[in-house]
Amino acid sequence: MNYCKHLKKKKNKPYCNMLKKEVTSNQCRECIHKEYKIRINKNAQKNKKSVQNVKINSKFAQKSQKMQFKSKKMAKLERNRFSVFTTDLEHCYLCGRKKEELHEIYAGRNRINSMKYGFVLPLCHECHSQNQNNSLFNEFWHKSGQIYWEFNIGSRNEFLTIFRRNYLD
């Protein structure tokens, strides 16, 4: 949750340095002087401060979120993605148009494992948005990925320890 940079604790109660008084959470939420801290990647901007204060209109204050940055390991995995299902990562696997997105077959907690073992499909934006939440599409590719794993990489038990689910039963 984001907090206003003016909000402090004084005697275990919220205190606004801008208004110079104790406030309730509703008063803080509706304040017109609200400012948030947003983190900036230190490597991207070496000469600037690591924290920049940004004024946000109180209407949009609840929707604002802290910026998240990827670790070096995650960024490297995303740059070096490959697919065990196709060698052409430049065109959509389903329709043949130019690829715009790479779809990891196993999502959520297994997204990193999908990138690591090549369970990735190049898709155009239309195909990706149509099939990303399609249960039949996902079920087919989950099974295909597990079959590929069992024939080329390792055993079913190894698949279960890494991906924590058996898609073939």
Structural account:
The structure is a single chain. With 169 residues, this protein is of the alpha+beta class. It has two domains: 7-55, no CATH class; 72-163, no CATH class. 32% of the residues lie in helices and 17% in strands. It has six helices and seven strands. The strands form three sheets. Strands 1-2-3 form a three-stranded antiparallel beta sheet, with no helix packed on it. Strands 4-5 form a two-stranded antiparallel ribbon. Residues 48-67 have low confidence and may be disordered.
Low-confidence stretches: 48-67
Total count of domains: 2
**Range of helix content:** 25-40%
Count of separate DSSP helical elements = 6
Instruction: Kindly report the average pLDDT value.
Output: 80
Name its key features.
32% helix, 6 helices, three-stranded antiparallel β-sheet, elongated, 7 strands, two-stranded antiparallel sheet, alpha+beta, 169 residues, 2 domains
Describe the structure concisely for a colleague.
By secondary structure, this protein is of the alpha+beta class.
